[in-house]
């Protein structure tokens, strides 16, 4: 769960909410400090354990290395040598103990037997001989068994001991192998984490300077009053049972609805709210306190104390400057101090469109592949010189972009400066919060559809400018291998340029990364849905309709004139080029291409001219001053690009074309209006209609 941002303005106000938020950050810092200490402690434990493990492995290796099996015989087999070099074995002592015991017993009995005197009775000597024979037999038996056991040990130790050691070594190697596999599995996550860290670092670098500037502004208390909410500590003069007293409140005044919210500081009672009617400075001679002002409210009862109807409520500010700020916010009669005004702002008008088009054309002509285009900045002096000359009120737009003084950095910096200087950002203040909220969505599909829908809520001129600009940025990003400007990098540059919060706050600074996401989605989504083969670009002028489409097998339609239609289509084989113009209801169609149709009509009459390759043309025209062209049949036009059928009636133009890949289907109708409908793989479908040459077309967004 994230914490609310710490605003610099709150440092000046020192509100209770600020103290609570600051306490949350302090607790988080303490938790982070403990976490770092635990990480360091546990990390040292891991390092020490690894060191101990390393020493143990080295000792184990030395033990295995120095151990050498003794062997019976003259030489060892290869397997015996291989095993003997790797392992050690424990010696069993059971047979050895028995052998030593029987050996000692036998030789002890032998010494006693040899010590017998010959003077003993024969029966005693015979008995002693029998006992010695039994001891000798027992000794020989234990000796043979011991020797056999020695042979068994020498042979079995090579696998009885080696097998467990080998299993142990296999376990260690399995652990190491799992470590390697885990390392390989961790690699994609590590790369993703490195990319996230780089993006986070870039975001920090991009917002650090902006936040420093905001901090410097907030060091000036006069800047606080620019907010739509004035807040701070005030002392209210209240009447209690035992007399009058001054009670400390933290007050918030909302300029929009003129409500004053009062939060008591010393007693945790109910928050009070007043609706202000007027604010008047309190004369010094009328009260023994300084920095006072009276407020008239709409409420009759306040603070659990009955006041007279419309009786003023007296407040004491913290200083003379603070009183002026409160009275300025409440529209009091105290003289209003100067408020900082935006240094320079411009409107989105025809001059601005002309400037942006010239900049876009210059960049796409001369600087599309320049590394770091739009990221690198030009000379501020040259930028201001260009803007002042182009937006000169006397002669706007009179600037030669082909002069030697113009360079890519100056043009790109001037374009960004113009967009940032708009009185309202291109994506408007009204849609800012909704766009940020959409960018914060975890569902990528919802994020995309929501931003797509919000674009339709833009004013028409903003939408046209956005279409022009995003299409240009797509063209720039298409050369990212050379200019290094991928959509995410371009979004970092144009995020704060196209979007701007109404008020400069820390929260707004923290939302810059989501502004970048919005612009990145616009660029990426335009690549998927707009431009390319079969793309549509619509441009209209006057009362007519101007549609221009390009791409393989595409359609380029341009219409102009009062109620007239001017269609121009081009493309590959099977393309159609129609150009219409003239007076009201006049039609001029010109079509070309392999096996195409060329029709030209003007005025109120009918002029049809058809030409092309193989395949005849059948034209049928009718209607008062109208044109009805129908081409087809055996003598029709049939190309790999499709079949073209032109049908026109009334004062309008109705063109319908269909076919295979690259085919074009245009259908136009209405009182002087244009309706284009197309089909076929790679084709273009445009539908426009309306009386008096009006036009309705699909937005560039798809």
End-to-end C-alpha gap = 38 Å
Strand order of the largest sheet: 1-2-3-4-5-8
CATH class of the largest domain: Mainly Alpha
Instruction: Evaluate the radius of gyration.
Output: 47 Å
Q: Which structural class fits the helix and strand makeup?
A: alpha+beta
What share of residues is helical? 40-55%
What does the largest sheet look like?
6 strands, antiparallel, barrel
Description:
- α15 (487-498) packs across α17 (512-529).
- This protein has helices spanning 8-13, 16-66, 78-84, 94-114, 122-160, 162-218, 320-329, 350-366, 380-390, 408-420, 432-439, 444-455, 460-477, 480-483, 487-498, 506-510, 512-529; strands at 229-240, 243-254, 259-264, 272-281, 292-297, 301-302, 305-306, 313-316, 535-538, 547-550, 638-639, 642-646, 655-658.
- The protein folds into 4 domains: 90-160; 225-329, PH-domain like (Roll), CATH 2.30.29.30; 350-529, Orthogonal Bundle (Phosphatidylinositol 3-kinase, Chain A); 538-702, no CATH class.
- The relative contact order is 0.05.
- With 702 residues, the chain is an alpha+beta fold.
- The chain has 17 helices and 13 strands.
- The strands form 4 sheets. A 6-stranded antiparallel beta barrel has the order 1-2-3-4-5-8. Strands 11-12-13 form a 3-stranded antiparallel β-sheet, with no helix packed on it.
- A hairpin with a 2-residue loop joins β1 (229-240) and β2.
